Amino acid sequence: MKRMTTSILCTFLAATLLAGCGSNNNTGNAGSGEGDKAVTEKAKSVTLKMFIAQPRFKEHYDKYIADFVAKEKADKNIDVTVQLEMPTADNASQILKTRLASNDAPDIFAIHAVNEIPSYYKAGYLEDLTSQPFAAKLLDSVKPSVTTTDGKVVALPLETLTWGYLYNKTIFSENGLTPPTTLTEMKAVVEKLKANKITPFVLSYKESWIPQLVLPLAVGGMMNTKDPEFVNKMNKDAASFTEMKSAIFDVFDLINSNGTEKATEVGGDDGAAVFAAGKGAMWLMGPWYAETILKSNPDLDFGVAPLPINDDPNATLINLSASTSLAVSPTSKNKDVALDFLNYVLDDEASNAFFQSLKFNPVATIHTYESYPWINDAMTYVKAGKSVQDPAMPQAVKDEVGKGLQAYYAGQLSQDEVLKALDKAWKSFNKVNK
Questions:
Q1: Would the pLDDT of 3 be above 50?
Q2: Known InterPro entries for this protein (predicted)?
Q3: 419 and 430 Cβ atoms separated by less than 8 Å
Q4: Are 210 and 199 in contact (CB under 8 A)?
Q5: Is-contact 117 326, C-beta < 8 A?
Q6: pTM
Q7: How many domains does one find in the chain?
Q8: Does one domain contain both 92 and 210?
């Protein structure tokens, strides 16, 4: 009995001591400052899903995202895990549309400002970002591209573009050439290059979005000179791409018959390497590939010029556009963190280095870095009135023309079959978006 009493007493004393320790700990916390409480508070964990179709920039995004993750932890004690998905441009649009339609939206996703904002906003896929701090930093020339017709900012622009085609300045200079202003002049440039055993054009059609670049250049030039209402008429099923046949195919045929071989086996990155190596004097491509080109050849001197589509110099124009832009899903469960990231993209201190590393144009008042030489080339045309706003064509039409021109290059479709497919794609778009 005495042994049992001793055992019970020991158990009671142990429990009392443990309770006392717990009581002392609680008292200590209650008496500590608010800062100590923040330190001991468990961090919130968030997984942020991003969908950005720019795989060639993965290294840059990874670094910037890592900096954001560190900042979010330091500022808000949030542990952020980012799942970054970077499909190729050929597949991205369809993958994203499927996700959005099936209620599996990424928290942050990239869209084309001109081509996709109207339909995505109408479908309710875009969060209103008007009140976010970054919106007040956007340049006046850029802000309209991510603003809806009812005045809401719904995306953050990453890329603003001034483009036509790229040309090797060294090759042009050594051969006494200047960028042509008409199709006839372009033919003369081609013949002189061939006479000097230089391949005029780099061809890279493995990815369908590359050959489709001829479409906005052709349509923009024709709308500036012959048919300013073309897009409006197409939206009403009152026009046809047959009206653009010569503008599209005359220059496209000239490029194809004077270019590098095996075009359907060469994608954007490979095309950049070929152009960087000087194996073609011109490339139907925009300056968004500058970073990739210079990675292959840092010393390459290249410029941007408008592509002639006919013999009217007034139709030879630089295309002005805003393309890749970041949006936030209204259904995101981590919207606050997603918005933090968007604002960090235009952070007063970090943004300059990020945009500069990507070789993107300045888009905000905080961007103070010097413009690149090829951008200055393009802006010379813009300042001279030789530019046109990117025609607002449905993304489905651009997807269709890319596939159609691939097939046309391979001899599988005629010009008329390509144009018929484009008309059909636009009419289908109109039915869904009435």
A1: no
A2: Bact_solute-bd_prot1 (IPR050490), SBP (IPR006059)
A3: no
A4: no
A5: no
A6: 0.77
A7: 2
A8: no
